[in-house]
Design brief:
By secondary structure, the protein is an alpha+beta fold. It is built from 18 helices and 20 strands. β14 and β15 form a beta hairpin. The radius of gyration is 73 Å and the shape is rod-shaped.
Length: about 650
């Protein structure tokens, strides 16, 4: 029986019977029929195109079903795909193939995308369609690999019978046999196709057989495309690596030059190309360098007094540093400088119209000036017992720091004092007023009104206490307490009292200026009256007992002598012996009493004289210590330093 081929002209697909001669005849008759229909359409040009198309498709379908019925007979006979069918499967329509294979008991097993096939020098990726046939039907697996821009690759996994039958169809064609990976591979080349027969002994159920059919040029082109892509990728990778290294080198150079922003841009670009830990460290260093550079730039503007620009830079630095935790110190520095610049701006705004008080801005210099003036006044008080002084000194500085200070007014009862105070204020060298680092206008007025008067008083310090010569005054108790507390000797003291008034505040200084005591010359008083010298050298503490004793014994001696004389006179006048004895005994006793009393009085007289001399010398010796203190400027009893 003659078996025809099914031809679908638009896709040039033919599914043929295994016999090659019959298949060729089938193709010839099919082509002749096609030409007849074409000529018929040319002669019948009056038929519309739609009608022509329907007639043509109808003829194709008739041949298609005829061919499938004939081929169905052939598959039932042999159960294997033929050589021609395998080669035509390369470009046949999948829908037609599925219908044909289904009719021949092939079961569609599904599709998979992007499946790798490793039968070539390089792995290739294709979409896959798979059909399977059971063991009872000469089991096998048919896999088609293909995408729209390539001819399909046909992989037919079958049994030994089909494998041998199909391989036998190529017995007259040249072949090349090799062994690779435990596979015996026989390769045939025909009409641009490569057919590989692969027999393997690695299967778990014995040998496995597979037939691989593909378009040689198409595969070579695909492999060349992959190789070209690999070369391109290698070149791009080399270029990328070169760009990477150049970018790193440029960033390193910029970092060394201190251009941290540009260096950071290059480091980040390199990090995008190829992330590395070492680059992250360099990026952090560049970030830190940029932050430091911003602060340094802001500091430069601040030194140049370009405050608006400096403030903007510090704010930029603070905002930048706040984004990174490791720049905390830089952010704090920038924030601190922002505060300083804002304070400076506030000062500059205030200093335009405000005049500050010098004593508030320059308290130390102001206090030093006042103390210098007080020291000068103190010297005047010490060297001049009486006087007065009025001083008004105007302190003034402008915003350039120029000292415009001067003495507004000056008056004094003392000569040559104005020149002394003029020299004093020049020597003090007041400093200009500043807020932060800027001179500001400042003024202050130093006013001093001083007057003083010195008076002297004499006081006797004896056993009765302190006796002022001019009567009691307010200083007496102060002086008395001082002498008593310091165990000063009794005598005559001269006291100087200085009454001072400084800017309405009274002050008083009291000091001993002279001291006198009684020396051995008081013995002359003892010559006149024993005890009187003692009263004098002891300032009334002793002496009255001696006076009384001396007068008592002197009087007793005189009285006893007078009585003795009167009794002796009676003795001489008496006539009776008894009377004579009585008067004589009385006269004799009184005479003895008189002599004894006179001796005692004489002893008091002599003792007092020499005791007074001794005490007087002791007084003089004690007075020398006090006199030496007085010679050094007197002894201060009360001192009230003048204050402002």
């Amino acid at each position: 029986m003659l078996i025809f081929v099914i031809v679908i002209a638009p896709k040039n697909i033919a599914l043929c019977y295994p016999n090659q001669d019959l298949c060729n005849l089938q193709v010839k008759h099919t082509n002749t029929a096609t030409r007849i229909f074409k000529n018929y359409f040319k002669l019948k040009s009056a038929i519309t195109p739609t009608t022509q198309y329907m007639i043509r498709r109808f003829s194709y379908l008739c041949f298609f079903f005829l061919c499938f019925s004939l081929n169905g007979f052939s598959q039932d006979t042999f159960g294997c795909l033929s050589r021609i069918q395998l080669t035509r499967l390369q470009y046949a329509d999948l829908g037609d193939l599925d219908a044909f294979l289904t009719s021949e008991n092939w079961r569609f097993a599904g599709t998979r995308t992007n499946q790798s096939i490793n039968y070539f020098t390089l792995p290739l990726t294709f979409d896959e369609a798979r059909w399977e046939k059971s063991y009872s039907q000469n089991n096998g697996t048919l896999i088609l690999y293909g995408v729209s821009d390539r001819n399909r690759i046909v992989l037919y996994q079958t049994n030994a019978t089909c494998y041998a039958t199909i391989k036998g169809a190529f017995s007259n064609d040249p072949s090349k046999t090799s062994i690779e990976n435990n596979q015996l591979i026989t390769v045939f080349q025909r009409e641009g196709l490569t057919i590989e027969f692969r027999e393997s002994t690695t299967g778990s159920y014995g040998n496995s057989y597979s037939i691989l059919v593909y378009n040689t040029k198409s595969i070579e082109k695909a492999i060349e495309a992959i190789l070209e892509q690999q070369r391109l990728e290698a070149r791009l990778e080399a270029e990328k690596k070169e760009r990477y290294m150049n970018t790193i080198a440029e960033a390193d150079s910029l970092y060394k030059l201190g251009q941290f922003s540009l260096a950071l841009q290059n480091y980040e670009l390199a990090q995008q190309m190829e992330p590395r830990f070492s680059l992250r460290e360099k990026i952090n260093l560049s970030i830190q360098g940029k932050s430091q550079s911003l602060n340094a730039e802001a500091d430069t503007f601040l030194e140049r007094r370009q405050y608006e620009t400096a403030l903007a830079k510090f704010k930029e630095s603070a905002n930048y540093a706040s984004k990174y935790s490791f720049l905390k110190s830089q952010a704090e520095y920038a924030q601190r400088k922002i505060g300083e610049v804002e304070e400076i701006k506030a000062v500059l705004n205030i200093r335009k119209n405000k005049i500050f008080q010098y004593s508030e801005i320059n308290p130390k210099e102001y206090a030093s000036l006042k103390q210098g003036i007080l020291n000068e006044v103190s010297q005047l008080l010490e060297n001049n017992p009486t006087g007065n002084l009025n001083l008004q000194y105007q302190i003034s500085f402008d915003t350039l720091g120029t000292n415009l200070s001067k003495i507004n007014s000056f008056s004094s009862t003392l000569a040559n004092t104005q020149s002394r105070f003029s020299k004093l204020v020049d020597e003090v060298q007041l400093k200009p007023s500043k807020l932060d680092q800027f001179y500001v206008s400042s003024e202050d007025l130093v006013t001093l009104k001083a007057n003083w008067n010195t008076s002297s008083s004499t006081y006797t310090y004896n056993s009765k206490g302190l006796q002022p010569w001019g009567g009691y005054n307010t200083e007496s108790e102060i002086i008395k307490s001082f002498l008593k507390e310091n165990s000063y000797s009794r005598g005559k003291y001269t006291v100087s009292v200085i009454e001072k008034n400084i800017n309405g505040t009274p002050y008083r200084d009291i000091k001993l200026t002279n001291y006198r005591t009684v020396g051995p010359e008081a013995a002359f008083l003892s010559l006149l009256m024993p005890g009187m010298g003692t009263l004098t050298v002891t300032h009334g503490e002793k002496g009255w007992e001696r006076v009384r004793s001396f007068l008592l014994f002197t009087g007793l001696s005189i009285a006893a002598k007078s009585f003795s004389n009167s009794q002796f006179a009676k003795y001489e006048a008496a006539t009776l012996q008894e009377d004579m004895d009585s008067y004589f005994a009385a006269a004799n006793l009184s005479h003895k009493v008189s002599l004894a009393s006179a001796g005692i009085a004489a002893s008091i007289y002599i003792h007092d004289f020499f005791w007074v001399i001794s005490k007087g010398f002791k007084n003089k010796k004690q007075a020398n210590g006090i006199q030496s203190q007085l010679k050094r400027g007197g002894v201060s009893i009360q001192n009230q330093p003048i204050q402002w």
